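S1.2 Input.
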Amino acid sequence: MAKAFFRLQKFLRRTQFLLFFLTAAYLMAGSLLLLQRTRLVLQQSSRGTPSNQALPVPEEMSRAGITDPRTLQNPRPSPRLLVGMDALQEPALEQQHSPHWLMSRNSELRQLRRRWFHRFTSDQEPPQTAGLKAMKHTAEHKGTYMGCFTHDLRERTLKGAVFYDLRKMTVAHCQEACAERAYSYAGLAHGAECYCGNTLPAAAAAAEECSSQCKGEKRSVCGGVNRLSVYSVEQLRAAARPRRNVIYRGCFRAPENLTDTFPASLIQPNLTVEMCSEFCSKKEFPLAVMRGPECYCGYPTRRFPLRQGADGLRCSGTRNASSAAGGHYCLVYQTPVQDTRCTDRKFLTTKSKVFVALSSFPGAGNTWARHLIEHATGYYTGSYYFDGALYNKGFKGEKDHWRSRRTICVKTHESGKTEIEMFDSAILLIRNPYKSLMAEFNRKYAGHLGYATDHNWKSKEWPDFVNSYASWWASHVLEWLKYGKRLLVVHYEELKQSLIPKLKEMVEFLNVTVTEDRLLCVENNRDGNFKRSGAKQKNFEPFTQEMKDLINRYILTVDEALRGRNFSGLPREYVPR
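S1.3 Output.
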């Protein structure tokens, strides 16, 4: 009996040890697998967002129950980082939202996180230095590859148009863009930058120095660091000619000495608009000026600012007569060539001592105002958020931390006391709430450049959107008037109507000195690449009378508050309709 009991005890001890060993082995294997996966995710996410660039989470999101990702081991981008992409931006009003809104916003954030990681992890691919020789210079590209050349941003050889697409740049996309604008050469740098021009760069570089893959076309060469992959697009120009956009600017009084005013000229019997525009495009000038058989090329300048047009009848004989109205008037056309006198931009060389906000309600033209400020001052603007679409199109300040003070001002839609008092001063951009609400609704459903569909406008989302956002429009202005330390109030409509005077005010407020020619260049490129495209509905009225009554009350409240702070009231077109 004792012997049997001893054997049983020995067996149980061995079994216990065996179970312990198997459990330990199981846990160790699971831990190794978890560490491997975590390392992979950390590597991928660190490429997309620096770990030291964590941004605070909005109070509205924390109240809605969204967890701060910085508390997790996997450093995903914070919800504030996602605002401004396709997400519905949260109003800064302390109001309770219905479960429908809460569920839709949480779902939207989850989808954005998945999209965010897909974007950054798909963009990051291990460098294949051994396979660079196998990169296609172009089997499918229609242009002729000219070689690898040096690229100096301060003294660019390809001085024409400049385009950015930090996600989808391809050789074909750059070639077509340059051909449509009548350029002869297309050059790509850093895998995402496209430059156009009519003169081939002088300094060639070794072929292996152009080693950057195109962001939108793997295994194709798109230049390198300070290197350009250059293609000739002469054969594409004929096909692109019908798509070129030559814009009639109007009839203007000619300067006293056209030869001194315009750097290039041509005298041609039976001169046509196409002939003059083609000539000026080859010379890389944005303006084609015609007076009889004379064609002049140049830029808007102090002598010829293009601000006061004349009656078109004064130019009625300009095309086919030796002179019109005694030779005092001329026809002006905008060529496809971009005015590049104001396209160079950079970060501040030293940290700004004054922290300036560019504050607006969503849909009030903040992106357009940033375009104007960047091109007028030559410095990038920052953002309280991160909008990948804007960054991909050249707003490089989007990826810079908003508190770095390396940008001339910082975009924000925030209106809380704490967020406002962080800034030393602010440009407060205000737009008609009717227009702002429609613009933000379009952005929500069709991006920065599209229009929402009829289905979107007729859905239940539109009334909910107006009820939630109309009060935010008012509270945004009221909060900034209350807590803002030093404000410059700019009305969107006045900025559009009187661009140069209002832009001068903004630039002076930012304590930057700019030349008149640079401001004229901005005026010549006033729309940038962020004008909505597509069919716009005429006489479209999405607002019910109940919506109008609500919005009109907010308009009167804001107008009274502005006047109470000794600012000019809202423009007359805001008046209740």
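S1.4 Remarks. Residues 37-139, 320-325 have pLDDT under 50 and may be disordered.
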